[in-house]
Write a structure and sequence with these properties.
This protein has 70 residues and is mostly helical. The protein has a domain of 41 residues. Helix content is 41%, strand content 6%. The protein contains two helices and two strands. Strands 1-2 form a two-stranded antiparallel ribbon. Helix 1 packs across helix 2. The longest helix is centred in the last third of the chain and has 15 residues.
Length: 70
């Protein structure tokens, strides 16, 4: 998918549909398939989604522990 305004690829992850392990794999594929050199991570405010931080932390921890950095 591409961000319409900036014409940049983006990946939307729904924590209700993917485990952190599956999300980490999706991120790896996204980075590889789109030749990503810099990854920005954004999400809802913690006040609106209190579990978002913990999910993101776990997902990125799994990703970084299981994949070599380029």
């Amino acid at each position: 998918l591409f961000c319409l305004q900036q014409k940049k690829p983006y990946l939307l992850i729904d924590a209700t549909e993917l485990s952190p392990i599956r999300a980490a794999e999706r991120i790896r594929k996204f980075i590889t398939n789109n030749n990503i050199k810099q990854l920005n991570i954004a999400g809802p405010r913690a006040s609106g989604e209190p579990l978002a931080y913990a999910y993101t932390l776990e997902t990125m921890t799994v990703f970084l522990q299981n994949h070599e950095l380029i």
